[in-house]
Amino acid sequence: MTPARRTTLSLLAIAGAFSPFAASAQTPSFTDVPSDHFAFSAVEFLKQNNIVQGYADGTFKPSKTVTRAEAVKIIVAPLVQAEALVKIDGTGFADVRGVADWAAPYLEVARGPLAIIDGPPKTDKFRPGDPVKKAEFLKMLELAYRSVQTDPVDPLSMFSEIRMPLSSDVADPNAWFYPYMRYALASSMTMADSQGKLVPGKDLSRGEVAVLHYRFLMYRQGVRKQALLSLAESEIVNILRLLDASSIAEADFASNRAYIASRGALASKHDADEEGIIKGAVKTSEGFVALVDAYEAGAKGDLQTVLARASDAWHLAEKAKEFSSALGTLASQMQQIAKTMADQARAALEKK
Known about the structure:
Layout: H1 11-15, H2 40-48, H3 68-76, H4 82-86, H5 104-111, H6 134-144, H7 178-186, H8 206-220, H9 225-244, H10 248-267, H11 275-299, H12 303-323, H13 328-351
C-alpha cells in the first residue's frame, strides 16, 4: 500500500514564531571553539555560568573524551556549594583515592544527596577514568534535577505512558536507559543520527557533553520549542521518504520520535497564544503514527486495521485543524494520504 506522494511540509515555518536562545556575538573564549563550531553556543553559555572551564593554554579541547569522573563534576558543581565540597573527607569507592582525588567530593555528592550514581553496598567501584557513555551522562544529568526547587525533572515519570520503540538501538522500553533517552528526545537534547540511531553507548566528547547540558538547561527555560517542532517536521519528512522506500520499521521509529518531540514542546513552558499550534503539532505527529501503523498493517494484509488506523489519522488531522488553522495544509495532506489508504483497503476487501 503506497502513501500519497510527498508535498511540502511546513511545521518549521509555523514554529518560526518561537524565539530560540541565541548566543550573543562575542569573541570566542577558547581558541579551538570558534564561532562556527557546533558546540560554540553551548560552550560559551556554560562558561559564562561557571559550569565548564578550559585549559591553561586557552583551549577547551572539544574533541577530548570525557571520563565518568569529569562528567559527574560537570553535573554536580553547579548544584552544590563549594564549602560543602571541602567538608567531604573520603569516598566509599575503592578505585577512587579518597580525599586526595579531586573527584572524590563530587562523587560523594552524586552518590549521596543527589543519588545519581550507585555506591556501596551495591558497588564499591566507580571506574572514574572510563569514558562516559551518552546514556550514562543523560541519566545522571536528568536525575540530578529531581530535587531542585524550580521545575524539578523526573524522567522516570514524565512521558511514562510513552513506551514506543525510538530507534533500532533504543527499542526496548524496559531497558534501563530507555526513560532517559525518551526524556532527552522530548527535551530536544538529542536526535537520531543519519542512520536513524540514538547511539546510547557512544563515548562522549567535551563538545558533545556541553551541547547536551546546554540544551537541557535551555529546555528548562522554555526556549527549545522551535527546536522540537523543527525536529517533528524533520521526522515527518523522514517518515514519507522511508515509506516510499518500504522501510516500515524505520518509519515507525521516526513517527514515534516525531510524536515525542511534539509532546516535549507541549510540556515545555509556553504562552497561551502558542497553545493551539503546539497542540495541533501533537495531533499531527500522532496522526503520522497512525498512518505508519496503517501502512504496516497493509503490508501484512490486515485490511481492517488499515481502515481503523487510517480513520484515526483522518480524525487526528481534523483535530489539528481545530487547534490551529495554520496547520490546515499539512492536516489536509494527512487526510488525503489516509483516504487513499482507506480506499485501497476497501477495494481490496471488496475483491475477497
